[in-house]
Each structure stands twice: as structure tokens, then as C-alpha cells.
């Protein structure tokens, strides 16, 4: 006998649950990985498209839903709002999904929650949307220009206001548009194991398009890659790591010499530490981070990449790390930040940050940079980097540091970058990248050098 209440498709169920997890504070990539275990590649791809699509276009979806939503008589629960967003996104943006399938699957999701009222509302709203001749356009609505941009490109109003003031209307719209464009999967290839051309050849069947990156000599962009990165050929063998092109340039800024001691003071999952360790023979890199969970993931990658020269240590650089002053040749502070430069990869950032986030993060960054400076030996270098584009977290932080640490001077980033990346450096010697200008994440980096002095007697650390 035919099931009168078939369950929703696995992909849509997984996407629905993942979106609720993100609303509760989880990272999209983490919950998608866990929620799509056991699904075939096509379902995994659809679940990912639904999650990232709803997160990218959330405000526009809500504004459009309000055009079709009659008074429901009850407030919309987060579950019901998520089902409606997911259904409408398929109708508006996924041409390959038949309208009938989008509506029916949304109704099944509502029924699976056990609410006949919710299923009826979902059916009525989405069927009304399918009968629309054209979609309502917020750019034609009687709203302020900032509101129109915020709705059409689904960014919080405070962020639109900020960029309108800093960048002007044309560049703001270009940035908002670029933030909503899906980013490729970007890999950093280990040149000791595989050349770029060989990597392109071996990975060509894993994505719609595979090409080398423009600025980093070690990078590959994979467009339309389906499934988990762990299923790509060469993952287990350590051929590559996932890392955006702009972030790859940080390792090149560090540019160690053979035998150097390097501190990655905010190591996270260790991506930059592993990169730096492979750039010269005998380099010893301390990857310091206060979070045990991140270090556990870094330890897993250390084994996969076979980076014996990286030593992972739990600790907080701002709280007094267990290292002597003036010890390291090179110190990297890839500081925690507002993450407003990575919205195209992590659209949830738009909804998890507040207008005061850049200012609050800047105070943390100043403390981290000051603490890190005490660990740099005379003649050594201190590299500051953030994946954001706000003045508070970039130029204001380094100006504050420079005024209070006269023993350091800014070095032009062009001294450490390959020719292909030198165009990213401004006249002030600093790196700034923007998604709408270069097709990379938004990024900032500065290189400081401590004035030389007679070097102290020193040796290595034991592990």
C-alpha cells in the first residue's frame, strides 16, 4: 500500500536539520559533514546547496515570503521559518528543481514535525509563490537605498551602512554581490609531494573545473567539487590542505630560513603552521592555541601531512606563553577577528556578528600583538594577519602597535612575496584583498621587523 505520508528526501531533511544547527551557533561546514554522513554525492551536493543558499539569501527570502504570507494566526517557529525559506529558495534560485518537488518536499518536512497546521500553511504559501508571474524585487520597493541593498543582497543593515560610508554605493553593491557568489574549494598543494600541473591532472575528475590560483604558486581552485574534501584523491596521502589563496600568502610572508624557530601564536587547526614548516629545511614551528578541540584537529592533520617540525602546544599567547622573551626568529599572529572578509565562504558570519564586533575584536588583537612582540628576537620579524577588512582590526591595530613599540618597523610585504602576488601590496607595504576586486577572501597582513641588536645566547626547545 502506498505511503500517504512519505518522509522528506534525505538531502532536504539533512539541510533542514543543519540550518537549525547553524541557527543554534554551529558552523555550516561542520554540521553538513555530520548531517550528510551516508548520503550519496548527489544528495550531499543538494544539501550543501540548500544550506549555503538559504544562509546567503536569508533576508531576501524572508522579505519575499512576507509578500505571500497571510496572517498565520500563530507566530512562525524557527522550524517553520526554516522550512519556508528552504522551499522558497528552491523555487527562486534552483532551476533544476521542479516547483512541484520543492513544494511537496517542504510540506513533507512540515508534516514530519507533526503539525497539520504548519503543513497547510507551507502548502498555501509556497503554492501562492509558484503562481506569481514575477518575483517581487526589493530594488523597486519604496525603501531607502540602504534597505534595498540589505534586502536584495541579504546583508545586515549595519554592515551595509558601514560599507556605504567607507566604500561608496557602487563599490558596496559590488562587494555585496561578490559575497553572495559561491567560492571555489581552494587547496594548497604540497610542492614536495606534487607539482601544480600534476595536481590539476589528478584532481580534474573531482570537480567541474580545476585551475591554478592567480597569486599563490601553491594553490588550486576546484569549482563544482562534490562531496567531502576527505574523499578527494590524495587527501589521505597529504598532497594538499584546504586553504584560501589569500591565507596561503601569509606563509610566504613568514618566509623562514633553514633552521629558524617560528611561533604561530594563534594556530587554530594549524594550516599556516604546516605551510611554514615546509618552506625551508630544519624549520621548527610552535603552533600555539588555547582551544583543545582545534589542536586535536591540527594533530590529525599533522599526521596526515607528515609535518614532524610542527609542535602543537596548548596555551594563550596573551596570557603569558611558556617561552622565553626574544626567542623566536619569526612570530605570526593570525588573529581572531570579525571574519567579515570570508562571508562568501561562511555566509553565517553575516548573521552571527553585531555592529560592535570589529571594535571588540580590535581590543583583543592589540593585546595579542603586544604579547607576541615580546617573543621576537632582535632582527626577527612579526607578521600580523586577519581575514577581515574593517579599519578597526587592520590599520588602527597596527598604528596603535607601532606607536607603542618603536623598536619595530614596517617592512614592505613585497620583499617576501612571489612576483605573482606583489600587486596585492599597497604603497604603504601592507596587503589588502577584497572579494569583489581579486576573487579572494577579504584579507589584511602587515610585516614588522624588530631592530637588530646583539643576539642573545640561545638554543632550541625540547619536545
User: What is the makeup of the main sheet?
Assistant: 8 strands, mixed
Shape: globular
Q: How many E-type strands? A: 12
- Determine the fraction of residues in helical runs and give it as a percent range: 40-55%
Please name the CATH topology of the largest domain.
Answer: Rossmann fold
- Percent in strands: 5-15%
- In CATH's first tier, which class of the largest domain applies? Alpha Beta
Characterize the structure shown.
- This protein is an alpha/beta fold and 463 residues long.
- The protein folds into 4 domains: 10-130, NusB-like (N-utilizing Substance Protein B Homolog, Chain A, Orthogonal Bundle); 138-179, no CATH class; 185-242, Alpha-Beta Plaits; 245-450, 3-Layer(aba) Sandwich (Rossmann fold), CATH 3.40.50.150.
- The chain is 43% helix and 14% strand.
- It contains 18 helices and 12 strands.
- The chain has helices spanning 10-23, 28-35, 41-56, 58-68, 78-93, 99-112, 116-130, 145-152, 157-167, 169-179, 196-203, 245-254, 271-277, 292-305, 349-352, 357-373, 395-404, 435-438; strands at residues 185-189, 209-212, 219-223, 240-242, 261-264, 284-289, 310-314, 328-334, 376-386, 408-411, 431-433, 443-450.
- Helix 3 crosses helix 5, helix 8 (145-152) packs across helix 9 (157-167) and helix 16 runs parallel beside helix 17.
- The longest helix has 17 residues, at 357-373.
